[in-house]
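sanity check this:
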Amino acid sequence: MSTDAPVGTPPVARGQVLAWGLWDWGSAAYNAVILTFVFSVYLTDSVGADLPGPVSANSWLGYSIGASGLLIALMAPVIARRADAAGRRKRAVAVWTALTIATMAGLFLVEDDYTFLALGLVLLGLGSIFFELASVSYNAVLTQVSTPATVGRVSGFGWAMGYLGGIVLLLVVYVGFIAGGGGVLGIPTENGFHIRLVALVAAAWFLVFAIPMLLVVPEVPATRGAEARLGILASYRALFADLRALYRESPHTLYFLGASALYRDGLAAVFTFGAVLAVTVYGIADDDVLVFGVAANVVAAAGALAAGWVDDRVGPKAVIVGSLAGMLGVGVVLLVVSGPAMFWVFGLALCLFVGPAQSSSRTFLARLAPPGREGELFGLYATTGRAASFLAPTLVGLFTYLFASDRAGILGILLVLAIGLVALLPVRRPA
């Protein structure tokens, strides 16, 4: 991936690109297994099933993740900024990744009893914070393992590795530990032991695949050593001063952060509500949802890989606009078709555009970021994303209620994607 670098641009070793992508592969252990498909379900459907009181386990989980999102929004820009200034970007990835893995391993202690729900929620909330902070600095490393000519391909490679890693690990834990009660390994299921053991497997998976990047990719040099020694309040004051300067010098960078926050919320909603809609609207059997999820991740990974090449030739904005337009077109079709077969065809078509939009959003910001400020901007990227994360879920619920139809919830997702697309159109594309 270093052969197309412009004259004067130092080449990047392929081994560094692979090592960087392996972190994405390993991180699927948290995203796919812990937060989305396995442990969060165990926490709400088993551990908190008999929770006394008027507040359900689902609500408590929402409160926990919501509080984590608020802390991430407040912390991410300043913490990443300080890591940039001190030349400790890779160290930041290592520290936050290690803390994420520790919380994942700690989930083994959460037995199948509502008295353990609070422990599970605290660990899951802390894990969400640590993982997001690790991701901020990891995304900033993109500029260290790519050149201006290859940043799209490298970003697409990372997203694809994340999708594929999630597929492989989900299949491993489902077949080995979960299917039929204990999986083919015959793991005991008392007190949720098989699911708790999955948390340990996921922690080990993340640890093994995070190590190569920490060993192979060089650390970024310090850019503002004095700033790294500022206190927290002084760091926030410096951040706000830089934001004002950024608005004066490069307002389209801030416009992009706002626009991307909107459509990224729609992208997240596709996966958040996709499984529910597949069952309630299109009649997909419960047992087939996991199979569709695997297929959806394969398609999204293929889209991210292909779009990376397009990104390097025509730029990230064209890829994002094309992907959002494609999703809106497919989404309109999904509003009128019915049945499992139609959902398989058009649901997978929808997922084909998700990977490219996510990958090219990362490269868009990487191309905009001034050297040495990548972590700070990706921290703002995380913050703005969190700030808008309520929009799509709220609109899905609103349209479902107004039209008394689960299918109408799709309108909420499409509206957020459309607003994000309109907001992106006037944003100047990076050079």
Observations:
- Residues 15-216 form a domain with the Growth Hormone; Chain: A; fold (CATH 1.20.1250.20).
